[in-house]
Amino acid sequence: MAETPNRWEGVYQSKEEAETSWFEDRPQVSLDLIAETGAGKDAAIVDVGAGSSRLVDCLLEQGFRRITVLDLSETALRMARARLSPDAPVEWVAANVLHWQPSGRFDLWHDRAAFHFLTEASDQDAYLRVMDRALVPSGHAIIGTFAPDGPASCSGLPVARYDGALLSERLGSGYQLVRSLSHEHRTPWGSVQRFHFGLFRKV
């Protein structure tokens, strides 16, 4: 993972927001799954590997007020921050999630397309340890990855692909699968990427 921060800095420094394959004007699947958790407006939510995602904008519009946005790229976080009011109730964290030590605990962990870049079991284990420490009992995790019939790589990096069963197995018995959802993401240039989203409850 050592080269990854510079890689993502380069991506966000060289491309406009809507020139990235993962751009979504409105992350509706994520919003729907967050709504399904029943999270109240005071729920603590972290968006892991957020990049310059507009999820934070949408959550603020909906009245959420305890949001943490984490990414490896400071440039991506600056892009997102620039869209919002300076006094928006958001904590911005430039960090590698594998080594992150959250200052508090969260009711909801959201990750669209960060976990699937972890192809080594040791990195996956490190991620899941951080997630488990960060989530409160009965908290929810939403993890979106490329599906088994989705792309085998992204931005020149290999990915691990999952469906509900594979993701459940990887998270282990401490997490109950609440919803398994297939989604076809259309890139800004019209190609289709098949995703899988899993909504889990910590047991």
From TrEMBL:
<protein>
    <submittedName>
        <fullName>Class I SAM-dependent methyltransferase</fullName>
    </submittedName>
</protein>
<dbReference type="InterPro" id="IPR029063">
    <property type="entry name" value="SAM-dependent_MTases_sf"/>
</dbReference>
<keyword id="KW-0808">Transferase</keyword>
<feature type="domain" description="Methyltransferase">
    <location>
        <begin position="45"/>
        <end position="139"/>
    </location>
</feature>
<dbReference type="GO" id="GO:0008168">
    <property type="term" value="F:methyltransferase activity"/>
</dbReference>
<dbReference type="GO" id="GO:0032259">
    <property type="term" value="P:methylation"/>
</dbReference>
<dbReference type="InterPro" id="IPR041698">
    <property type="entry name" value="Methyltransf_25"/>
</dbReference>
<dbReference type="Pfam" id="PF13649">
    <property type="entry name" value="Methyltransf_25"/>
</dbReference>
<keyword id="KW-0489">Methyltransferase</keyword>
